[in-house]
Specification:
Blueprint lengths: L7 E2 L5 E5 L5 H15 L6 H10 L2 H9 L3 E6 L2 E9 L2 E7 L8 H14 L4 E6 L4 H6 L3 E9 L5 E10 L4
Parallel strand pairs: 5-6
Antiparallel strand pairs: 1-2, 2-3, 3-4, 4-5, 6-8, 7-8
Helix pairs in contact: 1-3
């Protein structure tokens, strides 16, 4: 594996943020899929879980990596989190299920927000049910509610949230 440039060190700990490379597609895909399978069934119907699994396909992840949009959070050698940036929109933020509630989500979000605030005054994201409270605590506010129809009359409801530069 090629040596990567560390973009960010977290408070002297051995947590590093890297821009993902092509060879990271499979580990990112596995982290995202495992997190969806572990967490989302507690919040969503099977049809919605399946939608998220297909939305975050290996092909979609690989395309975002090829465009330089995907970032990885590692604690030592272990991949614990990932996030994707598209202009001023944060997408695909996932932390491994056994690493949640340990500060990793805040660390990846801090870095993603820093990237966006270098070029924009506002960050947007679409909040899943499991993540809404987390984003509230990071200073995001809901700007609108969206409904996305799936098959067989199932509807995915989610919140579009924003955070402006300098907000809590």
């Amino acid at each position: 594996m090629q040596e990567k440039s560390v973009l960010y060190y977290c408070r002297g700990d051995k947590m590093d943020v890297f821009q993902a490379a092509c060879e990271d597609a499979e580990p990112v895909f596995q982290l995202v899929q495992n997190t969806i399978r572990s967490i989302y069934p507690n919040y969503y119907k099977t049809e919605i879980v399946d939608f998220f699994l297909s939305l975050h396909s290996q092909e979609a992840i690989s395309q975002d990596i090829a465009h330089g949009r995907v970032f990885l959070l590692q604690d030592g050698p272990r991949l614990v989190g990932t996030g994707t940036v598209r202009k001023n929109h944060i997408t695909r933020v996932f932390v491994a299920p056994d690493a949640q509630r340990m500060g990793y989500g805040n660390q990846i979000m801090e870095w993603l927000e820093r990237i966006i605030f270098d070029n924009y005054d506002t960050v947007y994201l679409d909040a899943s049910l499991p993540a809404g409270r987390f984003y509230d605590q990071r200073g995001y506010r809901t700007v609108r509610h969206e409904l996305y129809p799936l098959k067989d009359g199932v509807v995915l409801a989610y919140e579009v949230m924003e955070k402006t530069r300098g907000s809590v």
